[in-house]
Amino acid sequence: xxxxxxxxxxxxxxxxxxxxxxxxxxxxxxxxxxxxxxxxxxxxxxxxxxxxxxxxxxxxxxxxxxxxxxxxxxxxxxxxxxxxxxxxxxxxxxxxxxxxxxxxxxxxxxxxxxxxxxxxxxxxxxxxxxxxxxxxxxxxxxxxxxxxxxxxxxxxxxxxxxxxxxxxxxxxxxxxxxxxxxxxxxxxxxxxxxxxxxxxxxxxxxxxxxxxx
Amino acid sequence: xxxxxxxxxxxxxxxxxxxxxxxxxxxxxxxxxxxxxxxxxxxxxxxxxxxxxxxxxxxxxxxxxxxxxxxxxxxxxxxxxxxxxxxxxxxxxxxxxxxxxxxxxxxxxxxxxxxxxxxxxxxxxxxxxxxxxxxxxxxxxxxxxxxxxxxxxxxxxxxxxxxxxxxxxxxxxxxxxxxxxxxxxxxxxxxxxxxxxxxxxxxxxxxxxxxxxxxxxxxxxxxxxxxxxxxxxxxxxxxxxxxxxxxxxxxxxxxxxxxxxxxxxxxxxxxxxxxxxxxxxxxxxxxxxxxxxxxxxxxxxxxxxxxxxxxxxxxx
Lengths: 213, 316
Hints:
The complex is a heterodimer of chains A (about 210) and B (about 325). Chain A has about 210 residues and is of the alpha+beta class. Chain A is about 35% helix and about 15% strand. In chain B, helix 5 packs antiparallel against helix 9 and helix 12 (about 280-290) packs antiparallel against helix 13. The interface between A and B is large, with 58 and 57 residues.
């Protein structure tokens, strides 16, 4: 694994801070705070234990910390990416207790005792998961930023089809679901690729599905 | 996001009692909508009560042949349940038409009913919004506003937002009943028809729930049979909110039920419109959308709703 990144001062952090200040003044102008502005009713931090890629990790986090930020900023597992931070792009997709979720829309404190798997736990350059190898083989990316989320989703899409979980394009709801291009595309709609590598992503997923059939 | 304290209560009644007692408290289930709104500081809870782990995640059979769905059953689990797929296919279709695989894995049954509108003026804290900041005005009703996605019926001069759920539209057609526990530990039943409120002068009041009251289950009556379809019209083929959606249950004798999504502050249905089903889509919509007050930008929804139902009736 690559050495931990020094998080003390990065240009992106500085810019994010400036944007947050701008957003705050915007809120004040709009008079958005419908709720009370009183004090919180207890501690604003919580200690949780997560099993991350098979390893128990105890963390004390501000209650506001998302699972995504806990992984990236506290555990230095930066393979899981922050794209929109609002559940719209899928870059933050990881698995919790075996199911894929948007880690940006979940709080770390909600996951005490849960098993989290990130892209780092799926495979490493010298021992890639079949889905990672297929993405490389088919050029399923250009810039690569969405790729960890795409791979996390892709692995689960195949499992979800085989488990009989219906999708919007599923025909007969009581029959076995075939792994078709339409099923894969529909189920991958929560992972956006702004480089537009969709055709190659589809080819990679199809190959893994066929090889593991 | 503003700071908040956090707790996991011992049981549903304790959760409701705490929510009524602690200032600025809010329930957290899947979090897929609440956290989005907290990041934007549209929701600013001082205290978060995490209701996960309260044992409300099962689907059980009721004495009258229906199903009782725990509020924490995820959208994925509900849509994939073999009994739902077989006996309530409308519900599976509606859920699968909404959101994404990742979101459906976290989003819950009760949370889906309680999700807030996606009106762009509610989401943009620079804009006036009577729902977000009561009394500030309705940004969607100002000159030149973007109202293409917004409501055409059941709306008011204070608010024209729609309820965004697909699941709730199917549940409305299936006569679902919401079960709750109150802060004093009493249980209560609210038919889905009465659960969501019309905006009137108080668009900030969205549901019939009292402060602290917690949804525990949603009950589905015995299966109604017939052919069941959910047709959602949207700007993208996947992962977009409805412009118009139509839930249809059609029996062999031509009778049935119709509920609409994407057009109103709640799933939109009426017995009088259902009675017109044997007479065709135009007859149904002239009753169901009677009194509609669309804007110039969203008047197309009236035509779209009728044509969507017409297409479904032709196929059925």
